[in-house]
């Protein structure tokens, strides 16, 4: 660590001295000289701090982005994938289906996985609503849904092929990964606001 940061500190000191010399050469009043010197010193200390703690700041930014921006990008660690809990207490993840990316809510209370009507249309999936649908009980009452087959769904290190999903009636805009997705995993757990899923 010191082998990398040390030279940067030396260069910062050299640049600080050069700036101070330049300011002094203009023969400005001592008060003004000190004020400018303090400003430049604060700038150099700030830049040096950013360099010194860049790894810690990177981790801080990842956590802040999840809380503030609702980032749903999964983090791959070895063969496992980690998904951070969002500020509303749910787990959401960006998943790719046949080359297109959608946001999914992971819901262990849902027996099946669902695609929104918009997502199904974007993927060009034919929803046969002219046939009898399946009835699912939800918190808002029963809904009708029709099965569609997707080629490949991938979230982080998790890739599943030939998965059957449901498209409900009405203007449903939520994509859901339910227990049928979770049951195909080697394992999953939730610890300290992080869901870890194993392929």
TrEMBL record:
> Which InterPro entries would you find in this protein's record?
Aspartic_peptidase_AS, Clan_AA_Asp_peptidase_C, Peptidase_aspartic_dom_sf, Retropepsin-like_bacterial
Looking at the UniProt entry, the stretches that span the membrane are 9-27, 33-53
Entry keyword annotation includes Transferase: no
**Superkingdom of this entry's organism?**
Bacteria
Q: Which GO terms describe its molecular function?
A: aspartic-type endopeptidase activity
Q: What is its EC number?
A: 3.4.23.-
Q: What are the UniProt keywords, alphabetically? A: Hydrolase, Membrane, Protease, Transmembrane, Transmembrane helix
GO BP annotation list: proteolysis
Listed name of the protein:
TIGR02281 family clan AA aspartic protease
Species name for this entry? Answer: Sphingomonas lacunae
